[in-house]
Amino acid sequence: MSVGDASTNFTRQITNVADGTEDTDAATVGQLNRVVQGVSDTSAQVMGAFAAIGGGAGVDSNGNVIMPSFAIQGGTYHNVGDALSILDGALSGALSSIASLQQQVADGSVVGSHVAVDGASDGSDAASVVAGSKGVAVGSGAKSGGDHGTAVGGDSYAAGPNDTAIGGNARVNADGSTAVGANTIIAAAATNAVAVGEGASVTAASGTAVGQGSSVTAAGAVALGQGSVADRANTVSVGTASNTRQITNVKAGTQATDAANVSQVDEALATAKTYADAGDKKTLNSAKAYTDQKVGSFVSKGDFDSFRNQVGDQFHAVNTRLNQVGAMGAAMAQMSFSTQGINQPNRLGVGVGNYNSRSALAVGYSRQIAPNANVTFGAAVSGDETTGGVGVGIGW
Predict the structure, then answer these.
(1) pLDDT in the model for residue 7
(2) DSSP class of residue 239?
(3) Which of the listed residues 57, 130, 196, 360 has the most CB atoms within 10 Å of its CB?
(4) Which CB contacts under 8 angstroms, 24+ apart, belong to 229-238?
(5) Measuring CA to CA, which residue among 337, 306, 342, 331 is closest to residue 385?
């Protein structure tokens, strides 16, 4: 049946057509649109599936399927099954290795291990454990050079066994020493030393420097506080010769080597003054009697004046020494109390005292040589007068 003329390009629409149900029925535009939409949805689903597969899978402009390409463990695979099989084998091997390592760590069978963590993603400035076992190096240019050494931070360096260097450019050049803080340094001669704080340094064995810029240059010395300097062996410094610090909140001492506080010093000064006053009176009476005796035998005014001057000088010397003794007693008492409340095996006390315009300095050191035994040393100086003592304390 024709509803137009093809030779004249004359056509007609057939309208109000019901949807076809048989193979030979005419189809409506609505049926064709649903077919097109179904094809479009199916195409999107297919492309989504290819995208999920990955590996470049897809469909080219001619409708041909592009197979995926997976690079795994040095090989190339063009279907998902082969790729998953290779991944499964690699994962099984990795899990087996991890389980073996866990067992080795648990039973202590890992020997000679160390850790080095690169400081750059391309390995150009890698950290390294250059010698020894069980060392750790973390950071750009970090190096650990001995057994159980630890270097953490850019350019940190732990030279020998049991060394620890933590911080950028922290440098430990002696065995058994520790440096914590940027630019801290332990010299090669400073074994068993500790430096804590940016720029802190120790150049002598068993020294301890705590505080930014603090330094120790003598064996066994301790520098506490920013910029403190300890340059005498087996001493504790809390400042410098030109920058001193007070040690405050000191409890009254009870043992011979305990630090004394100002209250105890004042009490000691009062006792010393009473003793000195009594001694002055006795000395004065003896000198008066002696003077009276000698004056009776003098034959000239010149001899008498000379003797008078001599006696006056002796009185002045006696008074000066008594004042110095009082000042040293006050300094020793203050030194003893200055370390109260410090529960450490090593304690250092420093005290100053003054009596009748005379000043004194006292320094004491206490060392716990055993849980029930202490050894103490103490000394005081005032002008040309000095005093000192050594003590041993034992408890049971």
Answers:
(1) 81
(2) S
(3) 360
(4) 233/204, 234/365, 235/348, 235/363, 235/365, 236/348, 236/350, 236/365
(5) 331
Reading the block at residue 235, the tokens are: 């001493």
Alpha carbons within 13 A on the beta-carbon side of 370: 7
Integer-rounded Cα Rg, in Å, for the chain is 47
Other beta carbons within 10 angstroms of residue 261's beta carbon come to 22
Residues constituting the chain: 396
Cβ atoms within 10 Å, residue 161: 18
At 284 the three-state DSSP class reads helix
Q: Low-confidence residues of the chain, pLDDT below 50?
A: 108-112
**To which H or E segment does residue 83 belong?**
helix 80-107
Would you say 47 and 66 are in contact if contact means Cβ atoms under 8 Å apart? no
Q: Provide the whole-model pTM.
A: 0.44
What is residue 193's three-state secondary structure?
Answer: coil
How do 58-59 and 65-66 pair as beta strands?
antiparallel
DSSP state of 18: P
| 199 dihedral zone (left: phi>0; alpha: psi -120 to 50; beta) | left
Domains assigned to the chain: 262-394 (3.30.1300.30)
Q: How far apart are CA 186 and CA 208, in angstroms?
A: 10
pLDDT of residue 319: 81
Name the token pair of 348: 């250092």
Place of tokens 């850790």: 115
**Beta-strand runs (E) in 304-345:** none
For residue 304, give both structure tokens.
Answer: 């008498």
Query: Can you give the pLDDT at residue 110?
Result: 47
Give yes or no for a contact between 340 and 252, defined as CB atoms under 8 angstroms apart. yes
Q: Which helix (H) or strand (E) holds 349?
A: strand 346-355
Distance (Å, whole) CA 236 – CA 251: 19
